[in-house]
Amino acid sequence: MLKHAYLIMAHEDTLVLRRLIQLLDNENNCIYIHIDRNSRFRDTSQIQQLVKKAKLTIYQKYKVYWGTNSITLAEIFLLKKAIKSGSHYYHFLSGADLPIKKQSEIQNFFERNKGKEFIHFGTEQYQKDIASRYTPYHFFTRQLGRKREKKFWVDMETYSLAIQRRLHIDRTKRKAYSFYGGANWCSITAELAQYIVQHYGKYKGAFRWTQISDELVWQTIVMDSPYCENLYKIGKNNDYTACARYIDWNRGTPYVFRTEDFPDLMRAEECMFARKFDEKVDKEIIEKLYQTLIQ
Question: What's the farthest any 2 CA atoms get from each other in the chain?
Fold first, then answer.
C-alpha cells in the first residue's frame, strides 16, 4: 500500500483539527503539523494522545502572517521534514479541512492515480489578475494585514507601488520561468516533493516580496518542471477536483460547510478532502462526517 504524509497548517486547537487528525490516524500515514507561533496554541499533549497508529510530529517554527512569504516558508519547512518519511504522496491541508472519504477509499484513489500530481490552477483570467502580486515588490504586506485598516501602511504601499510603476519595475523580466497561481492545498508525489525541495532556492528570492506567494509556489514550480506532464487535470479552469478537494468559493470565501451539505460532500467522487469547516458555524456536520468515516 502507498504511504502518505499529511502536512497540516494549523493556527488553533479546534474540534475540526482534532477530528482531522483522528480521521488520518492510520498505520500507512505520517502526520506533520505546523502551528503558527503567533497563536496561543502551546500545549499539544491532548492532540498527541489522539494518534494511535500514525506517526505524528508537531512543529512551531514560524510566525505566520497573512499574505506574506512566511506561509510558504512554513510549508517548505514541513515538506523538507516530511520527505524523510519516504512517503509516496504528500498532502497539504489546513486545520479547517476534513477528509470526505474513508482511509481505504483515499488509498484506492491515489493507488489508481499513482504518479499524478494533484494541483489546482485558477482560470486564465485569474492568471492575468494575479500578476500584480509578483510583478512589483510588496514590502509592507505584513504591516498592512488582511483588513488593511492602518492608513499609514496603506499609504506606504500605495507610494511604493507608484514609484515602482514610474521606474518600470518588473521582477519577471529576468526570470526564465512564468508565474502561475491557484490553491495552495495540493497532493503531490514523492518525486515532485523531492524536486521542489532541491530546486526551491531558484525561486526563493522571487517569492520573498510576492504577495500571497503560497498560492503561486506549487503551480509555478510544477509548470517549470517535467512534472507538469503528470498533472491529474491539465487546464486553467478553476476545477478543484484537479487537487482532489471540494472547495466552494461561490457561496463564501470559501464557504463553510453545513449539515445540509452532507449529501453533496458524500457524492463528490473525485474529492478526497474538503474545506472548510468551523464548529462555531456548524458543529453537527463535523461530527456527522467523523462518525461516518471513522468506521
Answer: 61
Query: Which helix (H) or strand (E) covers residue 4, if one does?
Result: strand 4-10
C-alpha cell at 188: 503531490
Residue 243's nearest CA partner among 272, 215, 213, 277 is: 272
Query: In tens digits, what is the pLDDT along the chain, a chain of 295 residues?
Result: 899 999 999 999 999 999 999 999 999 999 999 999 999 888 899 999 999 999 999 999 999 999 999 999 999 999 999 999 999 999 999 999 999 999 999 999 999 999 999 999 999 999 999 999 999 999 999 999 888 888 999 999 999 999 999 999 999 988 999 999 999 999 999 999 999 999 999 999 999 999 999 999 999 999 999 999 999 998 899 999 999 999 999 999 999 999 999 999 999 999 999 999 999 999 999 999 999 999 6
Give bridge partners of residue 89 from the DSSP assignment: 4, 189
Bridging pattern class, strands 29-35 and 187-189: unpaired
Q: Which of 114, 115, 98, 124 is nearest to 271 (CA)?
A: 98
Residues 6+ apart with CB under 8 A from 214: 71, 72, 75, 184
Query: What are the backbone dihedrals phi and psi of residue 126, each rounded to the nearest 5 degrees, phi first?
Result: -60, -40
All three cell numbers of 162, joined, read 507608484
Q: In 10 A of CB 154, how many CB atoms? A: 14
Q: Find all residues with CB under 8 Å of 9, minimum gap 6, and list them.
A: 34, 36, 64, 71, 74, 75, 78, 92, 93, 94, 95
Q: 99: phi > 0 → left, psi -120 to 50 → alpha, else beta; which?
A: beta
d(CA 108, CA 101): 11
Contact between residue 30 and residue 85 where contact means Cβ atoms under 8 Å apart:
yes
Distance from the first to the final alpha carbon of the chain: 20
